[in-house]
Amino acid sequence: MIHMSEKPTYEELLKRVLEFEKAKLENKRNSEALHRSQVMLARTERIAHIGSWEWDISTDKVTWSEELFRIFQLDPDEKVPSWAEHSALYHPEDMESLRHAVEASVADGTPYELELRALRKDGEIRVCQACGFA
């Protein structure tokens, strides 16, 4: 048997509209707050010359902050180097240390802190402190 639902009253419709508008306003506020936080983080990284990156192992997707692009003198509009391509960014001995540290971190959650020689696009070598955790 099919039941016909009652039509909502004017007050119920008004309440739904107000709840929707309130949720929309809250979403806009949250979005603006997130944007402000992202701008502040980027500014802080730029001032401190600290770059950050993430690696989603399940998809092999690497994400870089804008400052990390500046540190390596790479174009942020270009593709982010994959984890495999990171070997071109560091001195070979240092890349091996980084590889071992990341593998250990992924395997057992061990955080790492290393000093690495970064190879910039202009050929300059910069000594960087790399800290990470899984």
* CATH architecture descriptor of the largest domain: 2-Layer Sandwich
Question: Cα-atom Rg, whole angstroms?
Answer: 24 Å
Characterize the main sheet.
Answer: 2 strands, antiparallel
**Strand neighbour order, sheet with most strands:** 1-2
What is the CATH topology assignment of the largest domain? Beta-Lactamase
- Counted up, domains total 2
How far is it from the N-terminal to the C-terminal residue, by CA?
A: 56 Å
Low-pLDDT residue intervals, each spanning 5 or more residues: none
What is the strand tally?
A: 4
Query: What amount of the residues lies in strands?
Result: 15-25%
Residues in helix, %: 40-55%
Mean pLDDT: 91
Class from helix and strand fractions: alpha+beta
CATH class of the largest domain: Alpha Beta
* Order of H and E elements: HEEHHEE
By DSSP (H or I, 4+ residues per run), the number of helices equals 3
Shape: elongated
Write out the CATH superfamily name of the largest domain: PAS domain
Description:
This protein has helices spanning 10-48, 66-72, 92-108, and strands at residues 53-56, 61-64, 112-119, 125-132. It is an alpha+beta fold. It folds into two domains: 6-48; 50-134, Beta-Lactamase (2-Layer Sandwich), CATH 3.30.450.20. The longest helix is centred in the N-terminal third of the chain and has 39 residues, at 10-48. The N and C termini lie far apart (56 Å). The mean pLDDT is 91.
